[in-house]
Amino acid sequence: MQFNVDATCGKARACTITTAHSTIQTPIFMPVGTVGSVKALDMADMTELLDTQIILANTYHMYLRPGDETVAKMGGLHGYTTYPNSFLTDSGGFQAFSLSDISKPTESGIEFRSHIDGSKHFFTPEKVIDIQNNLNSDIMMILDDLVALPATQERIKTSIQRTTQWAQQSIDYHRYNQSKGIGINQNIFAIIQGGTDFNFRTQSAEELCAMDYDGFAIGGLSVGESNNLMYDTVEHTTPLMPADKPRYLMGVGTPEDLVENIERGVDMFDCVMPTRNARNGTLFTTFGKVNIKGAVYKYDAQPIDPDCQCYTCRRYSRAYLHHLFRSREITYFRLASLHNLHYYLWLVRQAREAIIAGQFIEFKKDFYARRQS
């Protein structure tokens, strides 16, 4: 991986990340393709209509189905899916958290039952890397111990201890593999934990950032805490992260979350929100949200957002999208997902241009002014 900071404006950064498969300009939003597919879209949509340079796939889900060995035989994620650009793979730690009724963290890893057939499995830090080696993702996330908030001080302390221990095992194993010719072109990120306790965040960041990782993520947020507390935690944590490596905020979030955390020095984001909300009838625009299921749109000939140049807005009216949604027509899911992802990608590109121009504060003011108007 090559990484360069192209410009800064306050704490906000415009950077360039180069992997074996693509050049990624940050701030960047990564569409979520959990099982190797962004819901309702194909890879031509991702490359030709949305011009994405990186998407996310999930280790847990790809391991269970179709199986990481199957993916490896089919040419890794790139050969299997035909997506030519970069993949980031999550480690499965979040799934252990979100499926807590069928999973259990231990000192040596995470024990869980498959949500598909109930079969038992056990993820260790090393096994998670083996799976991601088979997937051949460009950026691998390590196994971490994620906890819901609020949590007791003792539980957060345990989370940090486990995460640091697993991080050391992960980096040692990855570098050993590379010495044997395995994962040569793959990069590895550690995940900082600590809840919203600044002392714990400092401890986790210092312990992890002392290790030889290619980048660092902030995990364990947007899991029950208030937005302001999340923003304060990010603001505390980013200065503790190396300035010469990528900074990734996992699982966040709304357009406002992106703008606020770009201002606080975050480079990379992912979230299911744009595609999930699209499928449920909520469309993001420069002036706020549109609930396309509302009867007010039945005869509305305008595009979703008159300022948007996405595939959907250049061709179809709110009235048509309203009709498709009410009819539960499959075409709606594609058109709505294209629009929402285009908006997110447009937003981070606008942020990048503002940072390079030294006008991020003005960009942020305009972002909120449009929504208030």
From TrEMBL:
<comment type="similarity">
    <text>Belongs to the queuine tRNA-ribosyltransferase family.</text>
</comment>
<feature type="binding site">
    <location>
        <position position="220"/>
    </location>
    <ligand>
        <name>substrate</name>
    </ligand>
</feature>
<feature type="binding site">
    <location>
        <position position="193"/>
    </location>
    <ligand>
        <name>substrate</name>
    </ligand>
</feature>
<feature type="binding site">
    <location>
        <begin position="90"/>
        <end position="94"/>
    </location>
    <ligand>
        <name>substrate</name>
    </ligand>
</feature>
<keyword id="KW-0819">tRNA processing</keyword>
<feature type="active site" description="Proton acceptor">
    <location>
        <position position="90"/>
    </location>
</feature>
<dbReference type="GO" id="GO:0008616">
    <property type="term" value="P:tRNA queuosine(34) biosynthetic process"/>
</dbReference>
<comment type="function">
    <text>Catalyzes the base-exchange of a guanine (G) residue with the queuine precursor 7-aminomethyl-7-deazaguanine (PreQ1) at position 34 (anticodon wobble position) in tRNAs with GU(N) anticodons (tRNA-Asp, -Asn, -His and -Tyr). Catalysis occurs through a double-displacement mechanism. The nucleophile active site attacks the C1' of nucleotide 34 to detach the guanine base from the RNA, forming a covalent enzyme-RNA intermediate. The proton acceptor active site deprotonates the incoming PreQ1, allowing a nucleophilic attack on the C1' of the ribose to form the product.</text>
</comment>
<dbReference type="InterPro" id="IPR036511">
    <property type="entry name" value="TGT-like_sf"/>
</dbReference>
<feature type="region of interest" description="RNA binding; important for wobble base 34 recognition">
    <location>
        <begin position="275"/>
        <end position="279"/>
    </location>
</feature>
<dbReference type="GO" id="GO:0046872">
    <property type="term" value="F:metal ion binding"/>
</dbReference>
<protein>
    <recommendedName>
        <fullName>Queuine tRNA-ribosyltransferase</fullName>
        <ecNumber>2.4.2.29</ecNumber>
    </recommendedName>
</protein>
<feature type="binding site">
    <location>
        <position position="310"/>
    </location>
    <ligand>
        <name>Zn(2+)</name>
    </ligand>
</feature>
<feature type="binding site">
    <location>
        <position position="313"/>
    </location>
    <ligand>
        <name>Zn(2+)</name>
    </ligand>
</feature>
<feature type="region of interest" description="RNA binding">
    <location>
        <begin position="251"/>
        <end position="257"/>
    </location>
</feature>
<dbReference type="GO" id="GO:0005829">
    <property type="term" value="C:cytosol"/>
</dbReference>
<dbReference type="Pfam" id="PF01702">
    <property type="entry name" value="TGT"/>
</dbReference>
<comment type="pathway">
    <text>tRNA modification; tRNA-queuosine biosynthesis.</text>
</comment>
<keyword id="KW-0671">Queuosine biosynthesis</keyword>
<keyword id="KW-0479">Metal-binding</keyword>
<keyword id="KW-0862">Zinc</keyword>
<dbReference type="InterPro" id="IPR004803">
    <property type="entry name" value="TGT"/>
</dbReference>
<feature type="domain" description="tRNA-guanine(15) transglycosylase-like">
    <location>
        <begin position="11"/>
        <end position="372"/>
    </location>
</feature>
<keyword id="KW-0808">Transferase</keyword>
<keyword id="KW-0328">Glycosyltransferase</keyword>
<dbReference type="GO" id="GO:0008479">
    <property type="term" value="F:tRNA-guanosine(34) queuine transglycosylase activity"/>
</dbReference>
<feature type="binding site">
    <location>
        <position position="144"/>
    </location>
    <ligand>
        <name>substrate</name>
    </ligand>
</feature>
<feature type="binding site">
    <location>
        <position position="339"/>
    </location>
    <ligand>
        <name>Zn(2+)</name>
    </ligand>
</feature>
<feature type="active site" description="Nucleophile">
    <location>
        <position position="270"/>
    </location>
</feature>
<dbReference type="InterPro" id="IPR002616">
    <property type="entry name" value="tRNA_ribo_trans-like"/>
</dbReference>
<feature type="binding site">
    <location>
        <position position="308"/>
    </location>
    <ligand>
        <name>Zn(2+)</name>
    </ligand>
</feature>
<comment type="subunit">
    <text>Homodimer. Within each dimer, one monomer is responsible for RNA recognition and catalysis, while the other monomer binds to the replacement base PreQ1.</text>
</comment>
